[in-house]
């Protein structure tokens, strides 16, 4: 069975837990995601630990945001770890995004548009007034023009972003919550089925999988739900 387009967020307090989650979910999902918690605690070695023997695709979610020269140096430093995807903040601007793209040519640079934890009210307080979709679309276009090959947005905006940037850009959606589960600190959420049907290429899912009693079974269940969405959208294929 082809692994589902899911990146499991390995936001674990220690390396053993992260490696265990990775080995439980990798038969079912295409990608594991290393974020700030794990990377700042263990450094570059964490990548090999979670990649393990399976060779699963690793998404390094460092959300770089600094002046272009500094981001270029940071992107170059982590490019040797060969992550499939590396995140930068779109709000860092076009020169910063371009610097990351040029510094890590073998890695997909994904620009985070607006964090999925921000509500419309939060955004207004940070100076991004108006519907979240407006700022997300504006930052998406800016990032793609600067060379980003992927974008991070919430599942609530994914269809509008797709319409704006076309098929070639990889759309990645955190803020995914299976029906009936708590949104926790996420503000702009949707179910895995909705995110996938609306055009997301890669769903980031952390706690709903890693916080469950059986992360492998939970990942397998969500993967099966996505296959049903695919089959319904393209019967006979
Ligand atoms: O806008 C963003 C960008 C990144 N993330 C990251 O995704 C996961 C989500 O984990 P859950 O446990 O499913 O909430 C987490 O690692 C974030 O750092 C995001 O949530 N929103």
From TrEMBL:
<dbReference type="GO" id="GO:0044205">
    <property type="term" value="P:'de novo' UMP biosynthetic process"/>
</dbReference>
<dbReference type="Pfam" id="PF00215">
    <property type="entry name" value="OMPdecase"/>
</dbReference>
<dbReference type="InterPro" id="IPR001754">
    <property type="entry name" value="OMPdeCOase_dom"/>
</dbReference>
<feature type="binding site">
    <location>
        <position position="11"/>
    </location>
    <ligand>
        <name>substrate</name>
    </ligand>
</feature>
<feature type="domain" description="Orotidine 5'-phosphate decarboxylase">
    <location>
        <begin position="5"/>
        <end position="222"/>
    </location>
</feature>
<feature type="binding site">
    <location>
        <position position="116"/>
    </location>
    <ligand>
        <name>substrate</name>
    </ligand>
</feature>
<dbReference type="GO" id="GO:0004590">
    <property type="term" value="F:orotidine-5'-phosphate decarboxylase activity"/>
</dbReference>
<feature type="active site" description="Proton donor">
    <location>
        <position position="63"/>
    </location>
</feature>
<feature type="binding site">
    <location>
        <position position="207"/>
    </location>
    <ligand>
        <name>substrate</name>
    </ligand>
</feature>
<dbReference type="GO" id="GO:0005829">
    <property type="term" value="C:cytosol"/>
</dbReference>
<comment type="function">
    <text>Catalyzes the decarboxylation of orotidine 5'-monophosphate (OMP) to uridine 5'-monophosphate (UMP).</text>
</comment>
<dbReference type="InterPro" id="IPR047596">
    <property type="entry name" value="OMPdecase_bac"/>
</dbReference>
<keyword id="KW-0210">Decarboxylase</keyword>
<feature type="binding site">
    <location>
        <position position="177"/>
    </location>
    <ligand>
        <name>substrate</name>
    </ligand>
</feature>
<feature type="binding site">
    <location>
        <position position="206"/>
    </location>
    <ligand>
        <name>substrate</name>
    </ligand>
</feature>
<dbReference type="InterPro" id="IPR011060">
    <property type="entry name" value="RibuloseP-bd_barrel"/>
</dbReference>
<protein>
    <recommendedName>
        <fullName>Orotidine 5'-phosphate decarboxylase</fullName>
        <ecNumber>4.1.1.23</ecNumber>
    </recommendedName>
</protein>
<comment type="subunit">
    <text>Homodimer.</text>
</comment>
<feature type="active site" description="For OMPdecase activity">
    <location>
        <position position="61"/>
    </location>
</feature>
<comment type="pathway">
    <text>Pyrimidine metabolism; UMP biosynthesis via de novo pathway; UMP from orotate: step 2/2.</text>
</comment>
<feature type="binding site">
    <location>
        <begin position="61"/>
        <end position="70"/>
    </location>
    <ligand>
        <name>substrate</name>
    </ligand>
</feature>
<feature type="active site" description="For OMPdecase activity">
    <location>
        <position position="63"/>
    </location>
</feature>
<dbReference type="InterPro" id="IPR013785">
    <property type="entry name" value="Aldolase_TIM"/>
</dbReference>
<keyword id="KW-0456">Lyase</keyword>
<feature type="binding site">
    <location>
        <position position="33"/>
    </location>
    <ligand>
        <name>substrate</name>
    </ligand>
</feature>
<keyword id="KW-0665">Pyrimidine biosynthesis</keyword>
<dbReference type="InterPro" id="IPR014732">
    <property type="entry name" value="OMPdecase"/>
</dbReference>
<comment type="similarity">
    <text>Belongs to the OMP decarboxylase family. Type 1 subfamily.</text>
</comment>
<dbReference type="GO" id="GO:0006207">
    <property type="term" value="P:'de novo' pyrimidine nucleobase biosynthetic process"/>
</dbReference>
<feature type="binding site">
    <location>
        <position position="186"/>
    </location>
    <ligand>
        <name>substrate</name>
    </ligand>
</feature>
<feature type="active site" description="For OMPdecase activity">
    <location>
        <position position="66"/>
    </location>
</feature>
<dbReference type="InterPro" id="IPR018089">
    <property type="entry name" value="OMPdecase_AS"/>
</dbReference>
